[in-house]
Specification:
The chain is an alpha/beta fold. The protein has a domain of 140 residues: Toll/interleukin-1 receptor homology (TIR) domain (Rossmann fold, 3-Layer(aba) Sandwich), CATH 3.40.50. Helices cover 30% and strands 17% of the residues. It is built from twelve helices and 28 strands. Helix 2 links the parallel strand 18 and strand 19. Helix 3 packs antiparallel against helix 4 and helix 8 packs across helix 10. The longest helix has 40 residues. It is found in: Membrane. Keywords: Glycoprotein, Immunity, Innate immunity, Leucine-rich repeat, Membrane, Receptor, Repeat, Signal, Transmembrane, Transmembrane helix.
């Protein structure tokens, strides 16, 4: 335990007219409950930076503080240790009481932040604690200004309620890589938002509907610089119609695709030190739309790898003609097609040079392409005309030989099996019991059964395809279990492909329904086959059983 403030330390201040109190760099860790109540009602400013506060019952007294401004920065700041270890020879009233450990957070509710009612500004900077900001309930307050610069708030979940009076929020330099869509839900009157120098490029490109900033429509200034943002969706700023200054410097943007033409009050757009090679026409049109409503519009695109080539000459022309102000124009430069750097102080003169170069270059390219195209066309036409009869003869000969070969090959095909039986494992008792006995033993047919005839060590799909190709017919034992099996449906679809492409649409599929199934339970591919080709249902009577097996023998023989 470091320093602990007791009630007795502050009781003599209660009757004073003290306005400002500074207790910086005192290693304060805890306060006795009731100690803060000893401070005078005239106190307006308190500075408690560079201490090591812990949670405790004293936090419930914070609500009653009369302060309007608080500075609690640099908590847990490291100090250079002294040469010798500090020793405490005597126990005094500032020493930590062990029995207080058990109850030091008894009066603090989880995710509840007590705040002074009159508090207007908080400075909470450079605190060496790494944590996310979860959803939190705050006591009634008047906070308008919060400076949370250079902490380690790596994830902003929220919301933080209520913060109805907040106008200024600075969470820059926090290594933050996540912000939820409800974090700003209770900060609807926010006007200045500074989130620069974070890692929000990992999350903002996914906000296609502009939900992150939907609750803060009154923003006047937004700073998202140095966030490694590669792109922003078109509707990311859709709710920000009142923005005056928008900073996106130091990111990875190469195209301006997000919507800004609804920002009628926009004074400044910072795009410096990104990856823009030029601003395309949609981006230029948006800027011109904003300029019609605000003649003071200025932008900064310095530090970008701008190009001055025939492909970007329209952009250079626009720079020279537009009334929009380019900040730091004397620092602008671009690269020519020869990779030489060119200053952009005078865009109009540069455009004239590019115009002359590009006209001659374009004419040369068009001329060469036209000549090459004409030569190839004449040569092709001459060759085709000269050999026109040979080409027609070869076409018909190939066509005739193809059909003859296909027909002979089909006639010579000798199948290894009379039928491939496709069934689901739960129906194997029917297949191995009755099906094989009736058709193999009695009828002398040779059937392919996957549990018996597939080659071990061979890929399942390869076994299935080979067995179907080597069988004259494919018998499908259809049941609800069959429709729910991946490999059964694989066998069914492979049989359909075999029928269409290798058997010239011959009907090789035969369906056997073990039980009645409603058309609604059948997939479209199966229902289509049932309606167009033959199938049979397994009967439940003796006479029907005889007819059933005779029909199967007739089909497979």
């Amino acid at each position: 335990m470091n320093t602990m403030i007791k009630r007795s330390h502050l009781r003599n201040l209660k009757g004073t007219n003290l306005i400002e109190l500074q207790v910086n760099s005192n290693r304060i860790q805890k306060m006795e409950k009731g100690a803060l109540l000893q401070l005078p009602s005239t106190l307006r400013t308190i500075s408690m930076s560079d201490n090591e506060f812990s949670y405790g019952d004293y936090l419930s007294d914070v609500i009653f503080l009369p302060v309007e401004h608080a500075n609690i920065s640099e908590l847990f700041k490291s100090h250079i240790p002294s040469k010798y270890e500090e020793r405490c020879e005597h126990r005094n009233e500032s020493n930590f009481q062990e029995e207080e450990i058990k109850n030091h957070i008894s009066s603090i509710r989880p995710n509840f932040v007590p705040l002074p009612l009159r508090l207007k500004s908080i400075v909470y900077r450079n605190c060496l604690i790494r944590y996310e900001i979860p959803a939190m309930k705050m006591s009634e307050n008047s906070i308008e200004y919060f400076d949370g610069h250079q902490n380690m708030f790596f994830s902003l979940i929220g919301p933080l309620c209520p913060l109805d009076h907040m106008r200024y929020l600075d969470l820059s330099g926090n290594m933050c890589s996540n912000v939820s869509k409800v974090f700003f839900k209770c900060i609807g009157n926010l006007q200045i938002l500074r989130l620069q120098n974070n890692l929000l490029g990992f999350v903002l490109p996914d906000d296609v509907n502009g939900e992150v900033l939907q609750y803060v429509p009154d923003l006047r200034e937004i700073n998202l610089s140095e966030n490694r943002i590669p792109t922003l969706p078109y509707y990311f700023f859709k709710s920000q119609v009142s923005v005056r200054r928008l900073y996106l410097d130091g990111n990875l943007l190469d195209y301006l695709i997000f919507k800004i033409d609804h920002m009628k009050n926009l004074n400044f757009l910072g795009l410096s030190n990104n990856r823009f090679s030029y601003l395309d026409k949609p981006a230029r049109d948006q800027l011109e739309t904003v300029f019609k409503n605000n003649k003071n519009l200025s932008i900064d695109i310095s530090g970008n790898p701008l190009k001055c080539t025939c492909d970007t000459k329209d952009f250079i022309q626009w720079m020279g003609n537009t009334k929009i102000i380019f900040n730091n124009l004397h620092f602008y430069s671009c690269r020519l097609s020869t990779d030489k750097k060119q200053n952009l102080n005078n865009p109009n003169r540069l455009y004239e040079v590019l115009q002359k170069e590009c006209v001659s270059y374009t004419s040369l390219v068009i001329g060469l392409i036209s000549l090459v195209g004409l030569f190839v066309s004449i040569l092709t036409f001459g060759l085709v005309y000269r050999h026109r009869w040979r080409i027609r003869y070869m076409y018909y000969m190939v066509k005739i030989r193809y059909f003859e070969t296909k027909q002979k090959t089909h006639e010579r095909k000798i199948y290894r099996y009379d039928a491939f039986v496709s069934y689901e494992s739960n129906d194997r008792s029917f297949v191995h019991g009755q099906f094989l006995r009736k058709l193999e033993n009695d009828a002398g047919l040779k059937l392919c059964i996957h549990q018996r005839d597939f080659l071990p060590g061979r890929d399942i799909a390869e076994n299935i395809t080979s067995a179907i190709h080597d069988s004259r017919k494919i018998v499908v034992i259809m049941s609800p279990n069959y429709l729910n099996s991946y490999w059964c449906m694989f066998e069914y679809n492979m049989a359909r492909v075999e029928s269409i492409y290798s058997r010239n649409k011959e009907n090789i599929l035969f369906l056997v329904f073990l039980q009645q199934m409603s058309p609604r339970s059948l997939p479209l591919l199966v229902l289509e086959l049932v309606q167009s080709q033959s199938y049979i249902e397994y009967p439940n009577d003796e006479y029907g059983d005889t007819v059933f097996w005779e029909k199967l023998k007739e089909v497979l023989t």
